[in-house]
Amino acid sequence: xxxxxxxxxxxxxxxxxxxxxxxxxxxxxxxxxxxxxxxxxxxxxxxxxxxxxxxxxxxxxxxxxxxxxxxxxxxxxxxxxxxxxxxxxxxxxxxxxxxxxxxxxxxxxxxxxxxxxxxxxxxxxxx
Amino acid sequence: xxxxxxxxxxxxxxxxxxxxxxxxxxxxxxxxxxxxxxxxxxxxxxxxxxxxxxxxxxxxxxxxxxxxxxxxxxxxxxxxxxxxxxxxxxxxxxxxxxxxxxxxxxxxxxxxxxxxxxxxxxxxxxx
Lengths: 127, 127
Description:
With 127 residues, chain A is of the alpha+beta class.
């Protein structure tokens, strides 16, 4: 089970810095939307993105979730992507995220394939 | 020379997600103050911190600098720590950063050794 603070920060409209590893091990970081259920941190991206390719080769990631009201208040989780969810579930999830962050569904004109990166957390650092 | 947008975001009172690599290559991310001169991104930390130890073993880092006024507007730089600056220069730099972020000098009671991580950028990603 995730730490309740991770869940609450991830379920609110806060941004996260997701880091994945390039083929040579160099870290790559992207600031993006985030979500969580009780067990996993969830990141929604597109199948063709470098970060999605990275985690299929090396599933190790870090996610820093930053309280939008106070950037000194952040959590870091380290872990691995244990599942890449594709299909209608991933599309429905980006619509839900768009509602959370923008109040509107995700742009219907964007039809690239979405994926959910389901992240199992091995280490949580609370600040 | 750094991209002017990197310099302007780093010199304003924005926060950055610094990622370093743990001994096994797992990424570790910390949200913190940031600075830049015309050539390097600058991170001030303490000598005993895991992130400072990490970069002495593997200097590869990523830094995502997030516009506090608009988190969709961020830059990512990837590069390597080319110098670890110690001594009075590093202490003066944390005082300057504290003034930028809090309006006050850094707490005099905190006497742990400060270091500046001087980061040479090999790749800049503007959003």
